[in-house]
Amino acid sequence: xxxxxxxxxxxxxxxxxxxxxxxxxxxxxxxxxxxxxxxxxxxxxxxxxxxxxxxxxxxxxxxxxxxxxxxxxxxxxxxxxxxxxxxxxxxxxxxxxxxxxxxxxxxxxxxxxxxxxxxxxxxxxxxxxxxxxxxxxxxxxxxxxxxxxxxxxxxxxxxxxxxxxxxxxxxxxxxxxxxxxxxxxxxxxxxxxxxxxxxxxxxxxxxxxxxxxxxxxxxxxxxxxxxxxxxxxxxxxxxxxxxxxxxxxxxxxxxxxxxxxxxxxxxxxxxxxxxxxxxxxxxxxxxxxxxxxxxxxxxxxxxxxxxxxxxxxxxxxxxxxxxxxxxxxxxxxxxxxxxxxxxxxxxxxxxxxxxxxxxxxxxxxxxxxxxxxxxxxxxxxxxxxxxxx
Length: 389
Ligand code: GLA
Known about the structure:
Layout (H helix, E strand, L loop, with lengths): L4 H12 L10 E10 L16 E9 L5 E5 L5 E7 L5 E3 L7 H6 L7 E2 L5 E2 L3 E4 L2 E4 L8 E2 L12 E7 L2 E10 L10 E9 L4 E10 L3 E2 L3 E2 L17 E4 L3 E2 L13 E2 L11 E2 L15 E5 L9 E7 L5 E7 L3 E5 L23 E5 L14 E2 L5 E11 L2
Antiparallel strand pairs: 1-2, 2-3, 3-4, 4-5, 6-16, 7-10, 8-9, 11-12, 12-13, 13-14, 14-27, 15-26, 17-20, 17-22, 18-19, 18-21, 21-24, 22-23, 23-27, 24-25
Bound molecules: alpha-D-galactopyranose.
C-alpha cells in the first residue's frame, strides 16, 4: 500500500498530537529540522561538497505506536521510542535536540557512515594498480569515509506506508572522486519500521568505475533510555567466535583470531562491564570488529543480542554482513549536551556497526569490498526491539 504524503501527514498529525502518550499508527510525518550550511569545494567553487540545505525530520510510527525519527542529514536516527516490559515507550538512541549538535559535536550519532565505514590505514589504498588517497581524519588514518562522509551529506527522502510498516527511502549520489574515492556511487538506504518493532535497513549501491564501499549505521543504543547512564550492566551475546586484532591506531594487523579466553568472548551472554577493564587500549573499552562469517549471507542472520535488566528491553541484531564493530562509547566524556540536556558519559551507549572488516582495501586476506560497474552492492541489517521478563 502506498498513500500520498499529504494524506499521511493529516493521518500523522492526529496521531502525533498524542505522540508522547500512545499514538496510533501506522503513520508518517515530516517537519523541518533546520538548515545545514554549505561545505565548500576547494577544487570547484561552483560545485560545493554540500550545498546549503534545509533538513527534514521524518517520524515513522508503526501500528503499535512505537516510533523512530530520521533526518535527511546523514540518514541520522535521531530518536527511537520502543516499549519497556511495562509497555512504556523510551528513547533508546543518543542524539541531539537540534541540528546544531549534529553539525558541531556529533561523534557519528545515528548516521549512515560511508563510503567506507571504519578505518583505512594512512588514508591510502590501491585498486586495480592505482593508488588513491582519502582524507586522514583520525590520527594517521581515514575514518568513516573522510572529513565529508555520508554522515554529512543530505539525502533525498521518499516516505510511504508499505505492507510491512512505514518506510523512508533515502537516496544520495556521491560524485566520482569525492573524498578521493573513485567512481560515481549511487546509493539507496531504505529504513522500514515494521509493526514487529524491527528497524530494517536495506542498503544498495552501484558505481560507474571500480571502487570500494562498506556502509553501516552508527546508532548509539542505550536500552535503559538515552539519558540513563552507562551500558555496563547491559548483557551482550555475539554470534562471533573470532575478531580482527588491531595495532594501537585500530588498524587490523591482518589476522583473524579466536575470542576464546579473551575479554572479547561474548559467545555466551555477559555483562558489557564484566571484563571491560581488561581491554588494553587507550581509552579502555570495546572497539573491535567481530567476525561471524567470511561473506555476505542471503538472509540476515542473528549476530548480536543485547538485554537491559531494569527496563527488560532486548535488542536483536540481524545482518547479511560478515562482521560487526562493537564500540562502547569509549570516547564519550560527558562534554556534549544531548537530548533534553542529557549528559552522555563514557560507556553511555553500545554501537553495533554491521560491516565488512576495517581497512579491507589494504587487507588482501579479508573479504573484498570492491564494487565493479554492473554489479550491485546490497546489504541488510535489522535491529529488532522486544522485552524479556
Ligand atoms: C567507530 C570507531 C571508533 C570511534 C567511533 C566514533 O565505532 O571504531 O573507534 O571512532 O566510530 O567515535
